[in-house]
Specification:
Blueprint (H helix, E strand, L loop, with lengths): L2 E7 L8 E7 L8 H14 L22 E2 L2 E2 L21 E5 L8 E3 L2 E2 L2 H10 L9 H6 L4 H11 L6 H5 L6 H12 L8 H15 L9 H5 L7 H20 L1
Parallel strand pairs: 1-5
Antiparallel strand pairs: 1-2, 3-4, 3-5, 6-7
Helix pairs in contact: 2-7, 4-6, 6-7, 6-9, 7-9
């Protein structure tokens, strides 16, 4: 396959960026998108040019590192697929592919296609964990959990924190990510002791990071490579209102 890549190049956070064109010959349709970029970077290094900065790790669709906008779509044209699991057979010979980083103020560009997503880490640090003693592994198996709740918690836990929801939302909302993380624990008895504190703390940190509010566009669900459902945002609202009301009553 012959392709024309238009890739966002930006030397640093404060540098002016631009799209740079790279012709690619002999691209295998069986390559993954990242393998195709590996070939490009190899060629650039051999020519003495700066390779394209891109974040990647597991290449199995589970770490969430490899987020890119491909022709204006988060993670590219295949629904429920991360960039690392996207194969070149989904493109046609002669295609022009525009590759850009996530565009959102809370995700500042570090270099080229690499963005700083530590805002998500700080939201998790605010409350996305269980710190009380809930027993050992065998105790978890001994606690009865309704099948429906177990399935919903498992679905929410599939969120890999890639940031596609934020990059796709016109308001830059992180509510699908935060909703999934809150739901994952709120649906299980192990998350119950810190349920209220968690909801208030994570929403407070989300607002502090500068993410926008949900306006029911639904683009986040459509772009999510793990197909996290909008119902998690509804659960986030319920958890937050219940927790905030309870805390204000005590005051």
């Amino acid at each position: 396959m012959k392709l024309t890549l238009k890739i966002w190049r930006q030397a640093g956070p404060d540098a002016k960026g631009r799209l740079v064109t790279y012709p690619m010959d002999d691209v295998s349709p069986d390559q993954s998108f990242l393998e195709m970029l590996d070939d490009l970077n190899r060629d650039l290094v051999l020519k003495g040019e700066e390779p394209v900065a891109i974040e990647h790790d597991c290449r199995e669709g589970i770490c969430g590192c490899c987020g890119l906008m491909i022709n204006g779509q988060a993670h590219g044209p295949v629904k429920g697929t991360t960039v690392c699991q996207l194969h070149m057979r989904n493109f046609k010979d002669g295609d022009t592919i525009v590759i850009e980083p996530w565009r959102s103020k809370p995700f500042p560009i570090i270099k080229d296609l690499l963005v700083d997503r530590s805002a998500f880490d700080r939201i998790i640090q605010a409350g996305g964990f269980v710190s009380v003693n809930t027993g050992n592994a065998q105790d978890a198996n001994a606690v009865p959990i309704p099948k429906k709740n177990a399935d919903l918690a498992f679905d929410a836990a599939a969120c890999i924190g890639c940031g596609a929801c934020v990059a796709s939302c016109p308001n830059g909302s992180a509510m699908l990510f935060v909703g999934a993380k809150i739901s994952q624990l709120a649906l299980l008895p192990q998350g119950e002791p810190e349920r209220k504190r968690r909801a208030v703390a994570m929403v407070k940190q989300m607002d502090k990071e500068g993410f926008g509010n949900c306006s029911n566009v639904g683009e986040c669900e459509a772009a999510c490579p793990k197909e996290i459902k909008l119902a998690n945002i509804q659960r986030l609202y319920r958890e937050y209102v219940r927790a905030a009301w309870s805390i204000s009553e005590k005051v």
